[in-house]
Automatic annotation (TrEMBL):
Alphabetical keyword list: Hydrolase
Source organism per UniProt: Streptomyces purpurascens
UniProt feature coiled coil, ranges: none
GO molecular function: hydrolase activity
Domain annotation AB hydrolase-1: ranges: 25-253
Pfam family, one: Abhydrolase_6
Name the record gives this protein: Alpha/beta hydrolase
């Protein structure tokens, strides 16, 4: 049974839907962060739609144990949470590892996904060297904790020129993450399936977003995903690295808002039938 995930659930009363309902938005954070990485988007989009942002298992306020052992466990946890919240269909957005989890969600329950947002992520399975690197990092985090790692990668997670407040927020999320949860996720992620072929079969609109200065998942990865997806928009955000939703929330939210409006327009009207 999936653990009970901590989560934000914000937005208007779902019982008072407009004639053309706004599709709920589900936001999946990356590693090693928590749901607060979506604070700007929760504030912006909950004004007129339901927005749900969970802490993944092992992160934030969600349980660390039982630890995730299979990458699909993250997707099944999200599915169980949305079942509990009675959210049947939704736009699913994920950044970095969260984007890979979003792809796994689409693999497992595509009928529930109305739109897919893939930010600063990539679909390929891990290489043998990548497996060894992630396993070694898991060992290191268990031995040393999160502090040294957070210091080393901060100015790749966000650009060196990012505002000090953004840097502090990102560093704080990383150092607050339980090493046990982060290590378990790294080992599971190292053994995830590839999603390259899956992307060619995505039947809903998609949005690919990337920071222009991202070195973890560079623009070339975004271009390849955009080319593979049958119906996708691409937005490259200048002045941002791996976390454009925090570094340039105004630009990120504009791109996401335009995408959401497009998905909303595809939904059937809830107007009562004519007599």
């Amino acid at each position: 049974m999936a653990p009970f995930l901590a989560y934000e659930d914000k937005g208007p009363d779902s019982s008072r839907q407009p004639l053309v309902p706004k599709v709920p938005l589900v936001l999946v954070h990356g590693h090693p962060f928590d749901r607060t990485m979506w604070a700007p988007q929760l504030e912006t989009f909950s004004a007129d739609r339901r927005v749900i942002a969970p802490d993944l298992r092992g992160y934030g306020a969600s349980p660390v144990t039982p630890a995730v052992t299979d990458f699909s466990g993250f997707a099944r946890d999200i599915e169980a949470l949305l079942d509990e919240l009675k959210v049947e269909s939704f736009v699913l957005a994920g950044l970095s590892m969260g984007g890979q989890i979003a792809m796994d969600c689409y693999r497992l329950f595509p009928e529930r996904v109305s739109g897919l947002v893939l930010a600063d992520t990539f679909p390929s399975a891990e290489t043998p060297q990548g497996v060894r690197t992630r396993d070694a990092m898991a060992d290191r985090l268990l031995a040393e904790g999160m502090g040294g790692y957070a210091d080393e990668v901060l100015e790749r997670m966000v650009a060196p020129y990012a505002p000090d407040g953004v840097k502090a927020h990102v560093h704080g999320m990383m150092t607050a993450t339980a090493p046990e949860g982060a290590a378990a996720a790294l080992r599971a992620r190292a053994r995830r399936p590839g999603y390259d072929d899956l992307l060619t079969r995505v039947s809903v609109p998609a949005l690919v977003v990337v920071g222009a200065d991202d070195t973890f998942t560079p623009v070339s990865d975004a271009l390849a995903m955009h080319a593979a997806l049958p119906d996708a928009a691409l937005h490259i955000i200048d002045g941002a690295a791996h976390m454009p939703n925090l570094e340039r929330p105004d630009v990120f939210d504009q791109a996401l808002g335009e995408f959401l409006a497009r998905v909303d327009a595809r939904q059937p009207s809830s107007a009562p039938p004519r007599p």
